[in-house]
Design goal:
Elements lengths: L15 E6 L8 H23 L10 E3 L7 H14 L1 E8 L5 H4 L8 E5 L7 H15 L4 E3 L14 H20 L3 E5 L13 H8 L2 E5 L2 H8 L5 H14 L1 E2 L12 H23 L2 H5 L11 E6 L13 H7 L3 E2 L2 E2 L5 E3 L3 H14 L3 E10 L1 H8 L11 E5 L12 E3 L2 E3 L8 H9 L2 E4 L10 E4 L7 E10 L3 E11 L4 H8 L8 E6 L10 H7 L4 E6 L3 H11 L3 E3 L20 H12 L4
Parallel strand pairs: 1-2, 1-3, 3-4, 4-5, 6-7, 6-9, 8-17, 9-12, 20-23
Antiparallel strand pairs: 10-11, 13-14, 13-22, 14-21, 15-16, 17-18, 19-20, 19-22, 20-21
Length: 596
């Protein structure tokens, strides 16, 4: 079963894409000759989006086309009225001809917007594109310009490949912006061990993302456990599933400190209840209303959350590793379903990075410490092994205390290669293989005095991945870091030697960033040295260009990336802020200010 019926997760309709066919308004021959072609262009794009985009919950993206072509301000207002009624969150204007620039543009300041001006010689669609973008820029309403490289014939109904890439990049990022608006980040607990990202900044969420911040003391989880405020039938189902699918590993704690078998079984029950309750806190559960808990049944409309855990909770009670790992995965005792976004140690900024990656890729996200840079020299000294291939310049050890998505095992496959897939593409067999590749070790008590269970697995090599992180800088605001690269395999003996130098009960991902030979990507050490926090979010696929487009919509400058120049897509106004692209990004974001 995929996405069980009770998991209608969030309040509010999913955002739609509004398509605006814009036309030369002169009647008496010109407009009439263009009506059919212009509307067909809009219908063609709407079909393209419908066939190639899905929301993170697996549903197809719906497109709304204006009722008529837009030749002037009255028809622009009619389209805006329809889009507001229909819940449009992203706006695309298309035209094959000249139209009246500022009279026909979309003036909604909160809607990401782009214009595709057809590259043809019969009618000057590109001239309108330039005029309309100038109007957008002069009015302070950034818009993306889409213009195909090759001249096409007027009757050509195909969408050029280069235009397709930009349409999808814009639409994915725009839908992510609209999907976050009005939703919540739920902070369960407070600040974990002085980690700055867990100082949840309401101003950032509200002004940059249009999100609420909700705060619940960790005690609420304990209250619901002790008072039985969870679905008892689901709990029994969860325990049965855990016994069948979650293999328990060796207890590496000193013998005199190990918990008894009864205590360990009790911990399994405790962490299963935690998992159900954290989910219920995020999205609610109608079953609780039937039990007489109407307020608790509502949840907090949280599209992402974080659990403080350390130390006040974990010094006393079982840790959150199991709950975070299962919630962040694409499956649990209810079957295959959309992963949640739950940040370890309540690191809300890494939670935001995970949310960005999830909304852009529709896949589960790896949460990890950016723990260690291993140089080729250090690897050879410790293991006697000389690195080669993609890892020849060294690699990063990504590892955290067992909270990582089980999708990160790499046991899913695309075209015979390891992958992390959208949940609707995951087979039951692949979910089982992810579980089989994971061992749940009794928590290391010197870290987690209250016990619990930590997952341990080794991520398969050969997956293209993108590591990202949002950081808040005083006097500047948020910035985004991006590093595309690959997971790698190491020889078994080398892996074991390196892995067991840290906690062997935690999941490991070996990561090699793609180097450019300059700046923060001159070598692998520089990537580690320039990373802005102890955590990173890792998404399957090379989605760095999509992240850059999203960041520009949110007015978050990108301070570090290894994306090739030709793949960077930002609003046209960014070109007016200087010829050095990254400095221009900072100036544009500062000039336009926050989106909300």
């Amino acid at each position: 079963m995929k996405n069980p019926p009770y998991q209608r997760r969030l309040v509010g309709a999913k955002p739609k894409i509004g398509v605006r066919p814009v036309i030369d308004g002169r009647l008496g021959g010109i407009r009439e000759s263009l009506e059919e072609t212009t509307m067909a262009m809009a219908q063609q794009v709407a079909l393209f989006f419908h066939e190639n985009l899905r929301h993170a919950d697996g549903t197809a993206v719906e497109c709304i086309i204006a009722d008529s072509c837009i030749g002037g301000v009255a028809e622009a207002a009619m389209a805006a009225d329809k889009f507001e009624r229909e819940g449009v969150g992203v706006s695309l204007t298309v035209t094959p001809c000249w139209c009246y620039g500022t009279e026909t543009i979309d003036m909604n300041p909160h809607t990401p917007k782009a214009i595709w001006g057809f590259n043809g010689t019969e009618r000057p669609g590109a001239v309108y594109l330039a005029a309309a973008l100038a109007g957008h820029n002069q009015k302070g309403l950034p818009a993306f310009g889409i213009y195909g490289k090759d001249v096409k014939d007027t009757g050509d109904t195909t969408i050029p490949e280069d235009v397709q890439v930009k349409l999808l990049r814009f639409a994915k990022a725009g839908l992510a912006v609209a999907s976050m608006r009005g939703k919540s980040y739920l902070s369960i607990g407070s600040v974990s061990m002085g980690i700055a990202g867990s100082i949840v900044d309401a101003g950032f969420f509200e002004s940059f993302l249009g999100m609420r911040t909700e705060y619940v003391d960790s005690m609420e989880v304990l209250r619901r456990i002790e008072q039985g405020i969870f679905d008892q039938d689901e709990f029994e189902k969860a325990i049965s599933w855990i016994k069948e699918n979650c293999q328990e590993g060796t207890d590496f704690n000193p013998g005199d400190k190990q918990k008894s078998r009864n205590q360990k079984d009790s911990d399994w029950g405790f962490v299963a209840k935690m998992t159900i309750i954290i989910r219920d806190l995020m999205i609610g559960n109608p079953q609780l209303k039937a039990m007489g808990y109407g307020e608790e049944a509502l949840g907090h409309n949280a599209i992402a959350s974080g659990f403080q855990g350390q130390r006040q909770w974990t010094d006393f009670l079982p840790n959150g590793d199991f709950s975070e790992a299962i919630l962040n995965s694409s499956f649990d005792w209810n079957g295959i379903r959309q992963p949640f976004v739950v940040a370890t140690e309540n690191d809300s900024l890494n939670g935001v990075s995970m949310l960005f990656g999830h909304l852009l890729s529709n896949t589960a996200q790896i949460f990890a410490d950016v723990r260690t840079y291993w140089s080729p020299e250090a690897v050879e000294r410790v293991t006697g092994y000389k690195l080669e291939g993609v890892a020849k310049d060294g690699f990063l050890h990504l590892i955290n205390s067992g909270s990582c998505t089980l999708d990160g095992t790499g046991q899913q496959h695309q075209e015979g290669k390891p992958a992390m897939k959208p949940f609707w593409e995951i087979s039951e067999r692949e979910a089982q293989e992810c579980l089989a590749a994971t061992t749940w070790y009794p928590a290391t008590l010197e870290y987690f005095r209250g016990g619990g269970y930590s997952s341990q697995f080794l991520t398969k090599g050969g997956m293209p991945v993108t590591m990202s992180r949002v950081n808040l800088i005083k006097g500047l605001g948020p910035v985004l870091q991006i590093a595309e690269g690959w997971t790698i395999d190491l020889p078994e003996e080398v892996n074991n030697t390196l892995d067991q130098r840290t906690d062997k009960t935690w999941p490991t991902t070996w990561f090699v960033p793609r180097l450019t030979g300059r700046g923060a990507f001159r070598d692998t050490y520089a990537v580690m040295a320039n990373w802005g926090s102890n955590h990173g979010s890792i998404s399957y696929g090379h989605i760095g260009a999509d992240l850059i487009t999203l960041a520009s919509m949110l007015r978050i400058p990108v301070c570090m990336h290894n994306i090739t120049e030709e793949n960077i897509f930002r609003p046209s106004a960014w070109a007016a802020f200087g010829m050095e692209a990254e400095g221009a990004d900072y100036r544009a974001c500062q000039s336009y200010g926050t989106l909300y």
